[in-house]
Amino acid sequence: MRVFITGATGWIGSAVVDELLDAGHEVTGLARSDASATALDRKGSRVRRGDLDDLDGLRAGAEEADAVIHLANKHDWGDPAASNRAERAAVETFADTLTGTGRAFVLAAGLSSLAKGRPATETDLSPAVGPDSHRGGAENLALEYAEKGMRVISARFAPSVHGVGDHGFLAAIVAAARKHGVSGYLGDGTTAWAAVHRTDAARLVRLGLEGAPTGSLLHAVAEEAVTSREIAEAVGRTLGLPVASVAPENATEHFGFVGRFFALDMSASSARTRELLEWSPYGPSLAEDIEAGAYA
Fold first, then answer.
1. pTM for the full model?
2. 2-159+196-222 homologous superfamily
């Protein structure tokens, strides 16, 4: 299968490229920089230069492919509205290009908007609707095309997609522990995150691309709920730091931007995903990764 992928050199995307190439697919990755283009070329991937604002380039990439995997996002925490606009415009472009072709479109989604005080399931619909909503309402927008001759699959990633080299939420929590000399958890430490190892997430994307029916909501989740206290204790053991509670009102001051996410319960189940795709995560747990030095 010829696959066009955005975010091809990102944290998850680079693992997805490896997974696809190993499975015999032909990959073309979107690259913004010379370094990204070189990295893709060395793996044996084709390269399309451009970014999310280059809608003509996105359209051309989709037209030349049998499937599109959209993992890129601007993640501009200083201007989230700009990130939302770019995400929606990209999804609209891909959807308009692929409508009526029968080709697959896999897009990345998160679980933060599904926080309900219980583990989110694949039957939970995202409340993000419209261009001004989280991620520009991209998941719901894409699902509108599920019955229009395009095979739409949403891959919802756990808030912690962990592993060596991760610079995401968990890396920020570890950095806060180093800065303050204490590994913190919020309140009573019971808020929890779902987690998945990067390689397991990449394999899920490939399996979804190859076999998930249109309209599928897939949860890239290996561990349903790792509490903030369990995360703090693993970080504390690894760095040799004391572990202590941080008042929820001080979350942003202590942890930085990630504090507002650490305060959310973003637990999730993947029972339906595992059954649908016969996907069984086998990578290390989040605590195992931390204690093995993945964030050291």
1. 0.94
2. NAD(P)-binding Rossmann-like Domain (3.40.50.720)
